[in-house]
Structure formats: C-alpha cells, structure tokens
Amino acid sequence: MTTTAFPTSLTALSSSSTCPISVTSPLICPTTAALPGLEPALLSARFITTFGRTAKTHGTHGFPAGVCPTVGAGGHISGGGYGNMIRKYGLSVDYVTDAKIVDVNGRILDRKSMGEDLFWAIGGGGGASFGVILSFKIKLVPVPPRVTVFRVEKTLEENALDMVHKWQFVAPKTSPDLFMRLMLQPVTRNTTQTVRASVVALFLGKQSDLMSLLTKEFPELGLKQDNCTEMTWIQSVMWWANNDNATVIKPEILLDRNPDSASFLKRKSDYVETEISKDGLDFLFKKLMEAGKLGLVFNPYGGKMSEVATTATPFPHRKRLFKVQHSMNWKDPGTEAESSFMEKTRSFYSYMAPFVTKNPRHTYLNYRDLDIGINSHGPNSYREAEVYGRKYFGENFDRLVKVKTAVDPENFFRDEQSIPTLPTKPASS
Ligand SMILES: Cc1cc2nc3c(=O)[nH]c(=O)nc-3n(C[C@H](O)[C@H](O)[C@H](O)COP(=O)(O)OP(=O)(O)OC[C@H]3O[C@@H](n4cnc5c(N)ncnc54)[C@H](O)[C@@H]3O)c2cc1C
C-alpha cells in the first residue's frame, strides 16, 4: 500500500441536485460547470479537495470517503473506499455516477461508451487492471448542520474487556447515524503492560441524542458529556485527521498537501462474522501484548452496508459484522527492522485466524497485502490470481475476470495482484 496520489479528478454533484458542484483536475480539464468563485487552489485530485470544497460552498453536504482525508481518489474509489459515514451511506463507490478511463487502445471512454460491465469493475475491482482512470463523477450526500464526535479510552484494568465484548453487539447494529471505531493497542501503564481500547466515534446528530442512545444501548462504554464535542461535519473531518483544535482551525488546512512524516507500515485485514467470545478476546489481548507494537482497528458495518447486494459492486464484504485492520508502523529504516516487524505482524495474523472468515479468508483490496498471494503472470496466472482474487472479491472475482478478458485480452495492465484474463482453452483433440 502506498500513498502516492494519481491526479484523478473528481466531479461532485449534490444528492439534492439543487447545488451541483464540480472539482476538476488542471491536468485534464474535463468540461464541468464550475461554480462561480471556485478557487484554483481547490482544484486537485485528493479527497481533501472534495471535503474542502464542500465546506466552502455548502456545509450541508459531505462525501463518504476515507477516514484519513489524504487518500488519493484513483486507488481509493476504484478499490471501494470507506469512511466514517459507511454505516449511514455505504461505500464511496456507491456514489460514483460516471467515470472517464483510458483503455488499452488509448481511447478515452465514459460510462456510456465503456459500458456497464467495465464501469462496474472499476467501482471496487481496482482501476489498475483495466486502464487509467482520469476522473470520477460523484454524488454528495446530506449531512446535518451539527455532528458529535467522541473518544473514550479504557485499559484492561478499567474493564476494557467488557466494553470491547459489548461493542461487537452494539456498533454494527445501532443507529446508522453512529459510527464507532474501536482501536486496540498494547501500552505500558506504571511499568505494567496492558491493552488500551479506544472507541472513536462520529454521530450524525446532536450530543443530547447521542447520550440518550448510548446510555441505553452501551452502558459499558461509560460515555460522559465531557467526552463529546459538537461541531460541523467538515470540522469533524479535521478532528478525525488528528486536529484536536478542529472547531477553531479553518477547513483550508485540509488543502495542505505536505505529506505526513515518512515511516514504514504494514497493513493486513480480516472480516468478522460472529462476535468473538470474552475468552477469545482475552487470548487476542495477550498476543497483542506479546507483539508489543501492533494495533488493531475494528470498523463496524451494518446499517446501509447490509442493505446493498454483495454483487452490486466488486466489493463482496458488505454483510460482515466488522472489518479488522492489523496495523504495524515503525520508524527505523533497514531490512533488519523490517523483517522483525513483518514477522510480528504475520504471527499475529495467524493468531487471528480462528475468529475471522475462512475459505477464503477475506481481505480488503485497499489494504493491499502481498502476503495473501501474488501473480507471476506465467502459464498459471489464472490459478495464482484465484488465490488472492477470491479473498479480495469473493464470487465477484469471476465477473471481474470476464470483464478483464473482454477489455484487455493481452493483459497489458497488470501488477502483482491484478485481475487475470480467462485461461485459454486447451486445443480440442
Ligand atoms: C494513511 C492512510 C489512510 C487510509 N485510510 C483509508 C480509509 O479510511 N478508507 C479506505 O477505504 N482506505 C484507506 N486507506 C487505503 C487507501 O484507500 C488505499 O491506499 C488507496 O489505494 C489509496 O489511493 P491512491 O490513489 O493513493 O492509490 P495508490 O497507492 O496510488 O494506488 C493504489 C492502486 O490503485 C491504482 N490506481 C491509482 N490511481 C489510479 C488511476 N487513476 N487509474 C487506475 N488505477 C489507479 C494503482 O495503480 C495501484 O494499483 C488508507 C491508506 C493510507 C496510507
């Protein structure tokens, strides 16, 4: 997984159709009707642009994309894309209404000329197997004037186990207006190793309504008024991007294109279908403390996600309870450090196996994980691709292969984990 942003452009339409807005890339200049007063500085490829423009021009609309607003549009949307409005609105790709792509013959195609199969494929199957995506046209979604965010932390000594166990029953089933991310991290407190469980949340509504909801549904969380802050939606985007002073700073900070400080990271992912027992969680906590550095991020599904068919886009994981991100970051350069941190991450992944989907063990495309299989593009290309392809796409892999075979039969667009063409049939005897 890299953070390189391709200059893919976004055109955004509000869902109410009363306030269309557009964001274009200076590199390709598609013909979209920009609103009067649109500053050139706001023309760019990243989601920060959509967030920035949405704040600037309306304040009542948002876009359900990356929790981290610096992700690039090209990889993010074509891999599905989710953010902290996933339970209310589903995936980023559910709000793409058109796209422009350069195909293997160098033609620029839009939705009409590429056809619904290819349009479907680049909406979750990854763009890189099919061509070069130049732009996406997206539809914005309504957001309320005030939203509420909170963070609650507990260690094992503060009964994090009960909170984490109950979270599994509440977070994927509660009001779709509420997204409660759970993060687990080994920490040292007073020289003793423990696990810190943090619930970080966005509620599309007022603090008073949130308090009533969670006092009833999730007393184990112990949410207090002091934990909560009301703000506008765009301020919440900045808050999620680790700006504690989000109610004071200007949304233009989202246009800062300086990259984050460089570090090294490895991500893996899993999907959970059945709540993990307290014994299971206890086991995982011990293994987290052994690993010493690895973090887990649980993202709840349910809500809108469970209403959309698993074949509507190539992303097949909609009916799961929650996604688990295995998250390892380190700063020391060099192969020795890399081997050690990768080894810890892979070991933990093996401990997680009993609690997650099996046959195949599902994985989120946008957390590219070369450990789950790679393609050498030799005679066994299709078989090799089935190994990672079923994990990323489930049964949608078959339709992706058909589309690939139709639009790029020579497999020009390929990488370690691209969609293969159908194997050519052996000559009949
Ligand atoms: C800090 C961080 C936070 C993240 N948070 C989230 C999150 O909240 N939600 C989420 O869903 N994901 C998240 N991700 C994952 C993110 O969605 C992926 O890394 C995604 O691939 C980023 O898009 P990109 O355009 O930067 O892709 P790149 O890394 O540039 O490319 C990824 C893949 O997409 C292909 N690609 C990129 N652009 C195009 C194009 N225009 N046409 C064809 N193919 C293209 C590339 O060839 C490559 O195969 C996060 C990643 C990071 C690093």
TrEMBL record:
Instruction: Output the Gene3D superfamilies linked to this UniProt entry.
Output: 3.30.465.10, 3.40.462.20
Q: Which InterPro entries match?
A: BBE, FAD-bd_PCMH, FAD-bd_PCMH-like_sf, FAD-bd_PCMH_sub2, Oxid_FAD_bind_N
Q: Which UniProt keywords apply?
A: Cell wall, Disulfide bond, FAD, Flavoprotein, Glycoprotein, Nucleotide-binding, Oxidoreductase, Secreted, Signal
Listed GO molecular functions?
FAD binding; oxidoreductase activity
Q: Name one Pfam family in it.
A: FAD_binding_4
> Start and end of every FAD-binding PCMH-type domain?
58-143
> Where is the protein situated, by its record's location annotation?
Secreted, Cell wall
Keyword field contains rRNA-binding: no
Signal sequence segment: none
Family assignment from sequence similarity: Belongs to the oxygen-dependent FAD-linked oxidoreductase family.
Name it: FAD-binding PCMH-type domain-containing protein
Could you tell me which species this protein originates from?
A: Arabidopsis arenosa (Sand rock-cress)
